[in-house]
Specification:
InterPro entries: Isoprenoid_synthase_dom_sf, Polyprenyl_synt, Polyprenyl_synt_CS. By secondary structure, this protein is mainly α. The chain folds into 2 domains: 128 residues, Orthogonal Bundle (Farnesyl Diphosphate Synthase); 182 residues, Orthogonal Bundle (Farnesyl Diphosphate Synthase), CATH 1.10.600.10. 77% of the residues lie in helices and 1% in strands. It contains 16 helices and 2 strands. A two-stranded antiparallel ribbon has the order 1-2. Helix 1 runs antiparallel to helix 2, helix 3 runs antiparallel to helix 16 and helix 12 packs across helix 15. The longest helix has 31 residues.
Length: 364
């Protein structure tokens, strides 16, 4: 068993243990609240645990081969996974996305519950309202789990714990800001100068995804281990371009990915009207009539497979896919160059290179 595999197992166990402790708190209020815990388990199972892994290897990049208690970093890594689940629940509501990881999204699960029970009102309204609350509950639980891990620190490590908490708080603010920028661009792009659309799309992925998917977990783990300012800066310099590359790959999958491996319908980002870097680059080279067609179709939730195929072909012929692939390669090279002389443990640098490849070459 590799060290990363062991970490994932520990995080999965920690999440399960945490939910077991929270279940009686919820069930004692009312048995009607059982779906909150059941659906939480569903959204916290599976996944590649990339954020947990980046947190752990950020921690190890400071600790090196030094023996230490894993409990604090495992709790922090698990807290990041719960935070991620909360973000997905809210994101699916905002995007009107019906699926997640090959199954129903949270609001659709609650909608199905409403329909099965034959309750009053509309299933859609109930589903959205309930999923908002589930996302809020998961956000709160991520904080509780992080705090449990920080409480396990020894007295001389409490300063490092406070630094990790500050980094976690900063991450939450940035993700919320990035989410707002994402929905803003879907509406405001039409009045923005054409020359600014690419930079605005890059700003969205930086704050909505790149920082919290890669950079923040690295820095939280390193801060928890008592990392020096130089070590934290090195991980920031590595994590940001890698996080951008990670999201650029995700944007490609959101348009061209195979539903059987991504767990989302092919072309889902087109239905949701995502104003991604891919779309911004396509618009730069498309002819006026083709650009008009792309703009008119993008964000139409009724898009069917033939219309999606037309948009996919437009984007391919624009050369945008090749340009995004080049951007991914550039960002990965920028990130990996940081590791060459970074003041980080050698084993961790090797593992970070492996993770770099996994998150940017994925097809799932």
């Amino acid at each position: 068993m590799t060290e990363s595999t062991r970490l994932v197992d520990l995080v999965d166990s920690r999440v399960d243990e945490f939910l077991i402790t929270r279940e009686p708190i919820v069930s004692l209020i009312s048995r009607d609240l059982t779906p909150l815990v059941d659906f939480s388990r569903q959204f916290l199972s599976g996944g590649k645990r990339f954020r947990a892994l980046f947190c752990y290897w950020g921690w190890q990049s400071v600790r090196g081969d030094e023996f230490g208690d894993l409990a604090p970093v495992v709790s922090a890594a698990a807290a990041l996974e719960i935070f991620h689940a909360a973000a997905l629940v809210h994101d699916d509501i905002i995007d009107n996305s019906d699926t997640r990881r090959g199954g129903a999204s949270a609001h659709k699960l609650f909608e199905g519950l409403h329909l099965r029970e034959g309750w009053a009102g509309t299933a859609g309204d109930f589903g959205r309202a309930s999923a908002i609350l589930l996302g809020d509950l998961l956000l709160g639980w991520s904080d509780e789990l992080l705090d449990e891990g920080l409480e396990a620190l020894t007295t001389d490590a409490r300063a490092a714990g406070r630094r990790a908490r500050l980094e976690f708080n900063h991450m939450r603010t940035e993700v919320t800001a990035g989410q707002y920028l994402d929905i803003l661009e879907e509406q405001a792009w039409i009045v923005q100068p054409e020359s600014e659309l690419l930079d605005r799309a890059l700003r969205v992925i930086t704050f909505k995804s790149a920082k919290y998917s890669v950079q923040a977990p690295l820095v939280i783990g390193a801060a928890l281990a008592g990392g020096t300012p130089d070590q934290l800066d090195a991980l920031r310099a590595f994590g940001l371009p890698l996080g951008i590359a990670y999201q650029l790959r995700d944007d490609l999958l959101g348009v061209f990915g195979d539903a059987s491996v991504t767990g989302k319908p092919s072309g889902d980002d087109l239905r949701e009207g995502k104003r991604t870097v891919l779309v911004a680059l396509a618009r730069e080279t498309l002819g006026a009539s083709e650009r008009t067609l792309l703009d008119a179709e993008l964000g139409d939730l009724t898009l069917d497979a033939p219309r999606i195929a037309v948009l996919q072909q437009l984007i391919l012929t624009s050369g945008a896919v090749d340009r995004v692939e080049a951007l991914i390669a550039e960002r990965v090279a920028e990130a990996e160059a940081v590791l060459e002389d970074a003041p980080l443990a050698a084993t961790a640098r090797s593992q970070l290179r492996t993770l770099s490849a996994k998150v940017t070459r994925r097809t799932f």
